[in-house]
Amino acid sequence: MESTAIKKTALFNIHENLGAKIVPFAGYFMPVYYTSIIDEHRRVRSTVGLFDVSHMGEFEIKGHDALAFVQRVTTNDAADLKVNQVQYSVMCYPDGGIVDDLLVYRLEDHYLFVVNAANLDKDFSWLQDNLRGAVQLENKSDATTLLALQGPQAETVLSPLVEVDLCRKLGYYYCQPGSVIGHPALISRTGYTGEDGFEIYCAPRAGVALWEALMESGRRYDIQPIGLGARDTLRLEMKYALYGNDIDQTTNPLEAGLGWVVKFDKDDFIGKEALLKVQKEKLKRRLVGFETDGKIFPRKGMNIHKEESEIGTVTSGTFSPSLEKGIGLGYVSTPHTKVGTEIGLDIRGKRVGARVVKTPFYKSGSHK
Description:
368 residues, Alpha-Beta Plaits, Elongation Factor Tu (Ef-tu), domain 3, Gyrase A, domain 2, 33% strand, single chain
């Protein structure tokens, strides 16, 4: 029988000692914030912050038919990847609904999928059910600690801790096996914030040492530990989709604005036929970004109106610490998705004005 016990990451004691607000999330005890969401958000935008995101899932895919398998279960074209290149992609059900969004790493002798924490078990089962050919699929999640160093000073903070001039040479959405303060690690220039930064995969036994070294190296930049609360507001300012909010099995990547990771010109992949039909019939709704009047902010599930007609639903919403206004995402019927369209939201029994805007909301991110 599968255990339902809530897990602790290798850094749990650190979070507890720092006085973090810790809650169960996706099967783990995770820090929501240490000081405040707004304070931590602004630290990442201004200098640098450090996240524990060890709750994410990592699956290793090896074997003679590994590429064919990756091509079949993801919508993007993994055949284009160079060794040590990273790709954002989506997995779909046969009806075009989204199983999950993920990162695909092409490494020297295997592929690595990095999936959302809340979908870890579901995703692994789904991949197992779709295994074909000479492929070995292994869940490496429990054997992996993942740190995210994010912010304009991330490169400066990490550089002294690696053996070679790795950081400066590492391009956006590329990775490199190496070591950090002597501990083996996979270092990738990726993130979920819109800022420059790195995600560092290591063994759990190295997690505490790497965390402490990064915090010490970042002291001159007032580095702070960052919780999941700020991770959410940072990603929303960039219009990065969150599974369970903006995308799920009831949405398809075309209406979610992820058509750029659906490559119809590659060989067959799961969901291709359904998505071709969606493309041919044209979209009935689209995911849009909107800003609200004043400092009132939207929340998931609120109705979106155009005059007296209900035209959609909010999927994500927050107060933007960078823009100091309410921002949100929602699916809106296609005739009302043009930038500048005035809409209304039902917030606490009142109709609040809002307008569709061009995204990302925050346009000054430092990612390269």
